[in-house]
Amino acid sequence: MPFKTIIKLVRKLWSKKSTTPPILARPTTPPENRPTTPPILARPTTPPTLARLPPELIVHMVQFLPLSSAALFTLSCRAIYNILGTHYWTSLWTEGQHPQHIEFLSQLSKDLPPDYIPCYHCRVLHFCSLGDSHHSSYWVPFELYGSLCRAAESNGRVSKYFHSNFNFRIFQMAMKRHRLGLDYEPWLKYLSLESTTCRINEKFPSEFKADVKIVDDSLLFRSQRVILIPPGLTIRGVDHNTFDLCPHIRFMDYGGRANLPETAGCTLNHQHGLQRCIRKSRIVPCTACPTEYEFSFEECEEFGVAVIITKWMDLGEGQTILDPKWLSHLDEEYTTSRIFWEIDSTSEISLVDKNPVQSNRISIRDSFGQDISSGPDSLEIAARLFSLPKRR
Hints:
By secondary structure, this protein is of the alpha+beta class. The chain is built from 14 helices and 8 strands. A 6-stranded antiparallel sheet has the order 3-4-5-8-7-6.
């Protein structure tokens, strides 16, 4: 019997009961109440396929991963953690695994809030945030004092070549927020320094200020120091260690080690009758690190002579302390810490003996801009410095 004939007979039989057979009836449920997801597409209640693999197979596969990846895989879910345990975590602290440890922290920080940054010295994730303080506009509440990273920056003379507030973690956080498209201006403000004054050796009033700017994904640093040389004095009495421009350029002649350009050398050891001095040097680049500097000397009437020292530095992208641009700006003691023993390219190599590091810019000064050197009012600054009280 044909199938259509069977259907007709079934309908005829059910029509005598004034009902429609359920198998042939049209759905009476309103469209808005109908299920939108077929039962076959519902989320399975069984564990993920990876966790259902034999534990022995998972342990075997992980052996082919780098140590940092294996430690991260351990954190993927509770089932994997129960199989692998803490073996790969603890292995990160063993000798020779420092690079893998930092890679683990770097990858882990990507899944955390942006306030966490990996520290190459301490081998932890530092939490960095800015808050109000009665001492300064911003402060950074994390374990700096007594930490390995603080000790390394002290050995590397970070405060000497930059200023007392400058440190790599703030630099690193500012660049991270820049790459993530977050607000980084408060962090740049912390890396800058408003005008501060002091007396050098009780004889030479001085003013210092610094600011930073992100240009083409690199941090550029600029500072300017004004030293007032009162009438009757020469700059010879200034502490030679105070104003080294970088590890490779010394400001003062001490034991025959000064290596300033000739354009500035004539001003160091005699009375400053500027008619026989060169008033302004050209923009001079350091041959070993991405630094440019300029000297100028201006007569300030009865107050003496103002020596204006401006420098510009390219610090790089701030992703790691091993960035050659960052390392080249610091003293060799920065790498004498035990953490560098495991790094063949850095251990026991003096920074000044390394290959020269240059900026990829035609001019760091031009990339930064001309605001500060378009001229402080030297006479006004000299008058203010001349009246700076001496210590009692």
